Amino acid sequence: MGQIETHRLRTRAAFGDTWLAILLLVPLIVTIFGVIGLPFVNAILQSFTDKRVGLPGHFVGLLNYRELVRDPAFWIAVRNSAAYAVVAVALKLIAGFVMALVLDKPLPGRPLWRALILLPWAIPALVAALTWRWMYSDTNGVINSILIRLGLINHPIPWLAALSIALISVIMVNVWKGVPFFTFTLLGGLQSIDRQLYEAAAIDGATGWQQTRHVTIPGILPVTLTATLLSLIWTFNDFQTVFVLTGGGPGHATTIVATLTYEYAFWNLELGKAVAVSVAVAPVFIIGILALSQLISNGD
Length: 300
What we know:
Number of strands: 0
Distance between the termini: 46 Å
Order of helices and strands: HHHHHHHHHHHH
Structural class: mainly alpha
Radius of gyration: 26 Å
Strand content: under 5%
Largest sheet: none
Mean pLDDT: 88
Number of helices: 12
């Protein structure tokens, strides 16, 4: 009888814990469903309509998606978005890693250097974009002025108006603003590595590069993957920088998915088609996030 009663008590306790866990998860599930699920489902449904500003939408099936497939501007936006996100994140990761290595050393005035490096991240995106638009100006921009005075160029370069360099000019602004995030994230990862590992590697005769390759990089790999995933999401969805600097031009040279969505929604007033642009690229985006998330899990 004693064993049966003990089993009953354990079963009752486990049953109570299960319901308590469900009760605690309910607010989270409701929040996720209300904040993320409902808007996403509504967006998908709206992408199947011809909804325009001020007018009711009617179901048109896959018409918006068929038009997008035949629209060269859509494919240009997808290509530019991929280049914008991949190149910018790669440059930010490399620059942030180098700066984190430097800041991890006992430098004189290290707090001041850290504060200066953090400045681009602290400046509002709109202010930073407006400042860089003035710096890039081919009439009174500071960059052209410096290059001309140094004798490196004879005529001002239209950084934001030339088809060949407009996208890379915009990417560099995103890199400038995003490097502090990688720097301080990776710096936190560096400072969490046990210093005894470096001492043991040095005793075994490992060079500086070998210590970086076999101790530093594996030690910060989880935080690096997490930072890369977050930065990819933010960079792919970056709108302010591109819109303020070029508005997607010249032509469609800097048009990305975010600016094309804005163009369809607020210039052409085609809300259904604008939503279809974002929904069309969502599967690729979700697959990328799942792949990186799996890498992060494997790293743990």
